[in-house]
Amino acid sequence: MEPRVTIHAKLPISPRFITPPPKLEQAVPLPEFELISHSISAPPVPSAEVSFFEEELVEVEKVDRTIPEFLDIIPKEREQESPRQDVAMQPVETSLSESRLPEWQPVDEEHVPEAIESPQTTMVAEIPEFEKVSIASKPEDRRESPIEFTPAEPDEVSTEKLTKKQERAAKKTLRKKEKEEKKLKKIEQQRLEKEQQDKQEIKRFEEEPQSLDQSEDEPSLEAERQDEDETPQIRVDYNNFKGIESIDEKTAELLYKNGYFSIENLKEATVDDLVQIRGIKRKLAKQMKKEIESYVTQSDISEFIPGKPKITKKKEKKRPADSSEWETSTSKEKTHPSHDMCTYKDYTLYKRETRKPDGKKATIHYFSKSKSGKGEPSPLPKGYRIALNKNTGVPYLKKKP
Asked: Under DSSP, is residue 295 helix (H, G, I), strand (E, B) or coil?
């Protein structure tokens, strides 16, 4: 391996630009202070008025004025009360000569005469200017004055934010209330409409007795209405409930109105059915059921059984032999077929055929006491039972459930 030698080109060194230092502003020269010696005295100021010529002027020292300190007055209890000391200041009398003296007098440094203390001045010096006095603590009537609070007004930005939030919340609550009110109104309207429909149906059911149409579901009821107008109301037969002490005249009428005409009907009814009758309570219904169960020993009987009327044959009259010659084909005896009749109390079931405006035939069934010339007695049709109209008391046919 041989060593490698690389030769680099030598770059010429170029002079660099040196930035000059910033020029500093000349500082303001400070004033020179002269030292003053204590020995040098200030030159005397010439005064216009000179009060003293003969005597020398003397320096007067200003006495420090002592300012009295104020002490806190602490109230004490009544037990530790100290007798109050009333100290009176005696006024100092000054003579006319003393009052005319000047304020400042020259004082000799060498000989200072001692001031003779007078008894009046000593008395004044001994008395302190401020004395701590104990005051008995008395209960103060503190009446609490009403404190007035001034609400701080927040910034404008914060009020705007709060008002927007409050408006949104108020709008939401209003919408909820409006929705709830609308729902309640709809429910009430539906309930009122239902009640009106039920009342109308009940009125129709009571006013128009039902009719049976064998060919079609909706037969005409004109003939049945005519017969019902002619027939009187049914009287309550109290003998049907004989043997049951809990059923009196009033309860018997209620049972008759609701379609219970005998003990056999009550046997099939439950306590809840009897309670639904207005005027019969649960206690009375239970007592009736107990008495009926003890009274009735027979098996369950159907609601209404149609009775078969007795058919009486007419006696044939004996005719002479010669009469056979004069008989024609029309004069032969007609055989009438026997029909089973359905009866309830004094009423019998009749049927009649009528034509509708469409031209179709329809059969009408109705109950009547008197025999009608147009109708014929009819048996109880299949799928129907006898029911009683509460208002008129006339029986009519009703479809079995």
From this structure: helix
Which of 64-73, 139-148, 237-246, 319-328 is predicted least confidently?
Answer: 319-328
Residue 370 structure tokens = 């008197």
Task: Give the sign of the dihedral formed by CA 214, CA 218, CA 222, CA 226.
Answer: positive
Are 210 and 396 within 8 A, CB to CB? yes
Q: How far is 240 from 256, CA to CA, in rounded Å?
A: 11
- Determine which of 103-112, 258-267, 285-294 has the lowest per-residue pLDDT on average: 103-112
Bridge partner list, 398: 385
Cα–Cα distance, 238 to 291 (Å, whole number):
16
Q: What does CATH list as the number for 235-302?
A: 1.10.150.20
For 278-323, the pLDDT digits (tens) are: 888 888 888 888 888 887 654 444 444 444 444 555 555 555 444 4
Is the Cα torsion angle 285, 290, 291, 293 positive or negative in sign?
Answer: positive
Query: What is residue 66's three-state secondary structure?
Result: coil
- 77 or 370, which is more confident: 370
Query: Any idea how long the chain is?
Result: 401
Dihedral angle sign, alpha carbons of residues 251, 252, 253, 258: positive
Q: Going by C-beta distance under 8 Å and a sequence separation of 6 or more, which residues neighbour residue 383?
A: 399, 400
Percent helix, strand, coil in the chain, to 5, is: 30, 10, 65
Across the strands, what pairs with 396?
A: 387
Distance from C-alpha of 168 to C-alpha of 306, rounded to nearest angstrom: 77
What does each C-alpha distance from 198 to 156, 193, 237 come to in angstroms?
63, 9, 32
Q: Distance between CA 366 and CA 397 in Å, rounded?
A: 8
328-345 per-position pLDDT tens digit: 444 343 444 445 778 888
Higher-pLDDT residue of 281, 46 = 281
Select, from the ranges 30-39, 40-49, 265-274, the one with the highest average predicted confidence (pLDDT): 265-274
Beta strands, E only, 42-169: none
Q: Which two tokens stand for residue 336?
A: 């009438």
How many helices and strands, by DSSP H and E, does the chain display?
Answer: 9, 6
Task: Using alpha carbons only, give the angle 288, 290, 291 rounded to the nearest 5 degrees.
Answer: 65
CA distance 202 to 196: 10
Rg (CA), the chain: 69
- Amino acid at the residue 273: D
